[in-house]
């Protein structure tokens, strides 16, 4: 299992830091893991699954039209 720091999550998703935290608060984005002190990270597979879900949502909208 690999962990991703915030900068990598931003690069992979294209989301801004504030949007990531807003989506987390709304339950629309994977939650971070506290590594100790002020250090946090996200599980890479959870971020990848979130991206795949977004792609599937996009494809479903196209098919419905």
From TrEMBL:
Q: State which residue ranges cross the membrane.
A: none
- The name on file for this protein is Transcriptional regulator
Organism, as annotated? Hydrogenovibrio marinus
């Amino acid at each position: 299992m690999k962990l991703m720091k915030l900068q990598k999550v931003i690069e992979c998703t294209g989301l801004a830091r504030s949007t990531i935290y807003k989506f987390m608060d709304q339950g629309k984005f994977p939650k971070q893991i506290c590594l100790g002190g002020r250090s946090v990270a996200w599980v890479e597979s959870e971020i990848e699954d979130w991206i795949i879900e977004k792609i599937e949502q996009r494809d479903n909208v196209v098919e419905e039209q």
